[in-house]
Amino acid sequence: MIGAPGQFGSDLMRVMAAWAPVGLGHADVEVADAAQVLARLEAVAPDAVVTCAAFHRVDECERRPEEAFRVNALGARNVAAACARLRALCVYVSTDYVFGGEQDRPYAETDPPGPVNVYGTSKLAGEFLVAATAPRWLVVRVASVFGVAGARGKGGNFVETMIAKARAGERLRVVDDLVMSPTYAADAAAVVAALIRGGHLGVIHAANAGACTWFEFAAAIFRELGWDVPLERGRSSDAAPATRRPRNAALASPRLAALGLAPPAWQDALRRYLVARGHLPGVVGADRG
Ligand SMILES: NC(=O)c1ccc[n+]([C@@H]2O[C@H](COP(=O)([O-])OP(=O)(O)OC[C@H]3O[C@@H](n4cnc5c(N)ncnc54)[C@H](OP(=O)(O)O)[C@@H]3O)[C@@H](O)[C@H]2O)c1
To answer: Is the C-beta atom of 139 inside 6 A of ligand 1?
Structure first.
């Protein structure tokens, strides 16, 4: 596992614990360094490599496109090339931001991508390079991830940011014109494990079912917590300079549905996350198995 200490990586490590996965962090391997990637993976001799490594601060990717492509595209190719050499399955974690957002229904795996910013373009390039390089590959697209570990690259996750701001009594203005499908890292990790176990290949979407705006997501967090927090509706154009983001990045997964692996609704996932993080009372460990 590359990016193992990260938000998604740590849940993947937990879900796959029975396989005794080897977890590599950024200090262990730099995905942009092809020779190092091969050397590190050769030492492990894996059957499968999952890479979560990414440069995913969307605004910063816009300012530093070379770095975005170095990590998200060439880094993915380096991992895929090592997988090809070692005859290992290559699993690349990707994003809803490969889509353009102009479609009025959720995006399925068969819908054509069309990213509108550098981050999405570099991740799509990573997907293509994985497909072109590794003989056996799986691209798993997630979206708006919230996991117990919090995103290292983003300094936490949206749920924790909302809770911290509300506790601090800050004014909360949240964008209400961008639609997405929240992804609970624990649920998506279970999907990835099931896909690997089942030998499934190709592109697959692993967000929780349903979609909402960021404003609606924030409102749901406070509703679950029973907190009366005043929320203002913002617009994506409020931030300056505004990086283009897909207006509708909702994901659907006919493939997972057909396999009987579709994750539950995001509202259900949010409730379990709040319990797992200790924000809500619940059966300790109920979601950690
Ligand atoms: N977070 C989201 O909302 C979201 C949404 C859609 C898709 N995704 C995708 O999901 C995946 C995992 O995201 P996450 O939320 O788990 O992020 P995360 O917590 O930031 O984890 C990323 C991991 O990759 C490592 N890493 C970063 N750059 C690297 C490099 N050049 N070489 C080797 N390792 C590197 C990071 O280490 P350091 O922190 O030490 O650098 C960290 O351990 C990414 O591929 C991302 O594109 C995330």
So the answer is: no
